[in-house]
Structures are given as structure tokens and as C-alpha cells.
Write a structure and sequence with these properties.
The structure is a single chain. By secondary structure, the chain is an alpha/beta fold. The chain folds into 2 domains: 276 residues, Aldehyde Dehydrogenase, Chain A, domain 1 (3-Layer(aba) Sandwich); 189 residues, Aldehyde Dehydrogenase, Chain A, domain 2 (3-Layer(aba) Sandwich), CATH 3.40.309.10. Helix content is 37%, strand content 20%. A 7-stranded mixed beta sheet has the order 14-15-16-13-12-18-19, sandwiched between helices. The N terminus is likely disordered.
């Protein structure tokens, strides 16, 4: 097992500073004076005291966002090029502070520092730069509908956007939400997850330094139910809610939106089928299976948590998979050698371990893991866990565990696995491993999910849309399609008849 190495903590002094809410360009205390603690999941030590926003704070943030939007601080008083410049500047500042932000994300979330540095921070920078480019490319069109009229369309920002992000990729999810919203000229009220609020607050500071006007971005930290998240989702003066998280919370948000018919986009959970055919490159597929389920400690909505193995290669595949998993180094994320860190919280650790017991009771066979590491007494760790002999109707194969737990399901043939792969209420992602190009394309079209990887897993780019089918949500983040989430189309008819 990995042992934490001594190293300079670049965010140490920042962590000591009192944390506040960002409202109307100012850092302010919660009106109630309430606060909560955020913990290092590798050590269980308190990192910082965080203000707990209440209804008054959310009201103030929404009001600030509304005033900023109505007076056009970001979409009328600034040109599109100036707006783009702010986003480019923010990306540059994040890149400048990359090491500090990577450490902050690792301390707050627990993920390995290598992932935080090369995935979270790097992809955040790429996302802001991608959407900075979009700010100058929001175009309408002319429509020759009637010779007596000059008819054209305008693409306009929606207004005040409430954004609620999860704890698994806090910095990156912030970029996925802020990028298109700000490129279109909206004002934003962001509610980060209570487990991981720190990177949002630090990037909020950088946003002001980048020249984003007061009131355009606001950050309220706090909880969900009966707290900041619920108040934001229910707020009458919020024009749109964007939410990434658990599907039951998504259902609550949709119900709350009915009162004002605010627009909603949802990126929810998944139970992805990762399908390996006998003709696949087995070594590559083994690596892909590990990436698919153990990346970010399995706390990934598109995790390949259902591994379907064609029976001819089942035993060979499992031998190689267990050998590689047995060599994974688990420990505190700040150790450069760590490959898998802790779960984000005690609650999440207990949830994952409860599913281990459920799987055992249902008859699945524990191949490895299934407990906490003996040599890591502190922290919310769960060993990389694999179950074999899983049936597709077991809870371990149907419910989102959101941890490092893999359910291995053997299959007979193409028809068999096609039916099983789609037999889930989710539809966020899936993968196929095969050397047969016809088979690859056939399954890519057959699997009911928003993203399909062929002979790879967990590959992303800001230009490629991401989102789900079925109860994995609706709307597409990333790519040009997310611009639709944050803009309105207005048609204009001009009478030019004699």
C-alpha cells in the first residue's frame, strides 16, 4: 500500500483563510452565521469551515444575478470578444495555479493527485478555452419564409441560471456548467456539493480576477434538501436549473420546476455495460475495465460497473484482471504513487460496503476486495472489489453503487448480451471491445445510451456532447449542443412589403 509522502501544500495558507459566499462580487458571511466542516477523506481531518447558505443568502445571490443580467453587464455592455477574453483569462489563471488547484481537489475529494492534475485541472482549462471560443460564434440566421418580410433569428441568453454540481469532479463539473452559460452571457448562481466546496470557492476568486463583472457569477455553499440547493431549485426568479447528480434528486428538481416552468437539464446516474467479446484485444480490454470502474474510486456516473464477458474468454480475462487489480496501490491521494484513493465521505464508504453485503446475500461471488484496507486505519477507503457470477437482475447489477465495485456477468452470444445491456433504467454510457468493425458499429447503435466507447473507456473532449437516455437525464453538456441549454431563439419579422 502507498504511504503519504511529505510535500509542500501550496494551498495551505489559503485553507487557513475564512471561507465566505460569493454574492454580487463580494465575499460575505452566511446571514445565519451557520457553517459546516469539509474533511480530507484520506485522513478524516477538517480542512476548513464553510458557510452554510440559507434562503436569505440564495435570495441575495439570485437578486444579484438578476440585476447583473438585466443591466447587461456581461452580454450587452461587453462585446462577445470581451466576454471571450474573460473566459480565456480565467482558463489562464487556472492553468497558472494548476498545482495548487490539483492539491486542493485531492485534499477535498480524495482522488489521486495524478488524476487531479492531468484530468480535472487540465480538462477544466480546456473546457473554459473551448467555450471562450463559442462566445464570438453565437449566430442567428435569415429565413426566406415570405417575400413580404425580412425574417431572421437572434440567439439570446436565458437569464439567471441556477447550477448544482456533484462532489465527484467538482472543478470539472463547474467548468462544464459555467463554460456554456457564461459564453452565452447568462448570470449564474452555483451551489457546489457540501462534501467538496473548496475548488469552487478558489475558482470564484480567479473569476473575479479574470474580470467577470460583479453579480455574473455567484457561489452559495451549503446542503441540498431544505437548504441552499432546494431553495435555488425552487426559486421563482431562476430561469433555468442545471443539475448533475443522483437520479432521485433530479426527479425532485423536475417537480419543483413545474411551478414556474423553468428550463431544466439533468445529467444523472448510470449503470454502464462494458462488453468484451471473445475477438477483442484482451489485454487492452482488461486495462479498459480497470479504468472503467476504478478511476476516481468508482465515483463516476458513467463507470463501467457491469462487465459483460463472452464465456470463451471469461476465465482468461478474470485471471489477468485480478492480477492487475492486485497490484493497484491504494492510499492518500497526495502520494504520487497512489492509484486509488478513499471514497469522498464516511457516508459514501458505508454505502459502498452495504452493497458488498447485498451482493453476497444475492449469491454473487466475491473475487477480491469487499472490505476496508487493513493497513489504512484512517480515511474512508474501500478496496477495489470484484464480484463474479452476477446475474443482471441482481441489485448489484441494477442499482448505482458509485464506488469501486465491479459486477462481472458472463454472456453466450450477441443477442444475449444486447438484451442484458439495455435491461436497466439508466442509459448514460457503454463500451464495446471487439476487433470486428461491423459488430462494433452494430452495438454502438443498439445500446440505448448517450455515449458509446469502442475499444476504449472514459475518453472525453469539450467538443463532444455528453448526456443520457432514460433515467440518466436529458440535455447534452459539452460541444455545441450545450449552447442550446443556455440560450433562447427569438424570431424577428420585418414587414418590407410595398
Amino acid at each position: 500500500m502507498a504511504v503519504a509522502q511529505e510535500k509542500e501544500i501550496l494551498c495551505k495558507e489559503w485553507l487557513k483563510k475564512p471561507k465566505k459566499l460569493l454574492i454580487d462580487g463580494k465575499w460575505v458571511d452566511a446571514k445565519s452565521g451557520k457553517s459546516f466542516k469539509t474533511y480530507n477523506p484520506a485522513t478524516e481531518e477538517v480542512l476548513a469551515e464553510i458557510p452554510e447558505a440559507g434562503k436569505e443568502d440564495v435570495d441575495a445571490a439570485v437578486k444579484a444575478a438578476r440585476i447583473a443580467f438585466e443591466d447587461g453587464r456581461f452580454h450587452r455592455k461587453m462585446t462577445a470578444a470581451q466576454r471571450a477574453h474573460c473566459l480565456y483569462k480565467l482558463a489562464d489563471l487556472i492553468e497558472k495555479h494548476a498545482d495548487e488547484l490539483a492539491q486542493l481537489e485531492t485534499l477535498d475529494n480524495g482522488k489521486p493527485i495524478s488524476e487531479a492534475r492531468w484530468v480535472d485541472v487540465a480538462a477544466t482549462v480546456e473546457t473554459f478555452r473551448y467555450y471562450a471560443g463559442w462566445a464570438t460564434k453565437l449566430e442567428g440566421e435569415t429565413i426566406n419564409a415570405n417575400n413580404n418580410f425580412f425574417t431572421y433569428t437572434l440567439r439570446e441568453p436565458i437569464g439567471v441560471v441556477g447550477q448544482i454540481i456533484p462532489w465527484n469532479f467538482p472543478m470539472l463539473m463547474m467548468a462544464w456548467k459555467w463554460g456554456p452559460a457564461l459564453a452565452c452571457g447568462n448570470s449564474v448562481v452555483l451551489k457546489p456539493a457540501e462534501q467538496t466546496p473548496l475548488s469552487a470557492l478558489r475558482i470564484g476568486e480567479l473569476a473575479l480576477e479574470a474580470g467577470i463583472p460583479a453579480g455574473v457569477v455567484n457561489i452559495v455553499t451549503g446542503f441540498g434538501e431544505n437548504s441552499a440547493g432546494e431553495f435555488l431549485a425552487n426559486h421563482d426568479d431562476v430561469d433555468k436549473i442545471a443539475f448533475t447528480g443522483e437520479d432521485k434528486t433530479g426527479q425532485i428538481i423536475v417537480k419543483a420546476s413545474a411551478k414556474t416552468l423553468k428550463r431544466v437539464s439533468l445529467e444523472l446516474g448510470g449503470k454502464a455495460p462494458n462488453i468484451v467479446f471473445a475477438d477483442a484485444d484482451i489485454d487492452a480490454a482488461v486495462k479498459g475495465a480497470i479504468t472503467g470502474i476504478f478511476f476516481n474510486q468508482g465515483q463516476v456516473c458513467c463507470a463501467g460497473s457491469r462487465l459483460f464477458l463472452e464465456k470463451q474468454v471469461h476465465d482468461e480475462f478474470m485471471t489477468k484482471l485480478l492480477e492487475r487489480v492486485g497490484r493497484m496501490r491504494q492510499g492518500p491521494g497526495l502520494d504520487e504513487k497512489t492509484q486509488i484513493g478513499p471514497q469522498v465521505s464516511k457516508e459514501q464508504q458505508e454505502r459502498v460496503l452495504s452493497y458488498v453485503e447485498i451482493a453476497k446475500k444475492e449469491g454473487a461471488k466475491l473475487a477480491c476486495g469487499g472490505s476496508t484496507p487493513e493497513d489504512l486505519k484512517k480515511g474512508y477507503f474501500v478496496k477495489p472489489t470484484i464480484f463474479t457470477g452476477v446475474k443482471n437482475d441482481m441489485r448489484i447489477a441494477q442499482e448505482e453503487v458509485f464506488g469501486p465495485v465491479l459486477a462481472v456477468i458472463p454472456f453466450e452470444n450477441m443477442n444475449d448480451v444486447a438484451e442484458q445491456a439495455n435491461k436497466t433504467r439508466f442509459g448514460l454510457s457503454g463500451a464495446v471491445w471487439t476487433r470486428d468493425v461491423k459488430k462494433a458499429h452494430k452495438f454502438a447503435s443498439h445500446i440505448k445510451a448517450g455515449t458509446i466507447w469502442v475499444n476504449c473507456y472514459n475518453v472525453f473532449d469539450p467538443a463532444v456532447p455528453f448526456g443520457g437516455y432514460k433515467q440518466s437525464g436529458y440535455g447534452r453538456e459539452l460541444g455545441k449542443h450545450s449552447i442550446e441549454l443556455y440560450s433562447n431563439i427569438k424570431s424577428v419579422w420585418v414587414n418590407i412589403a410595398d
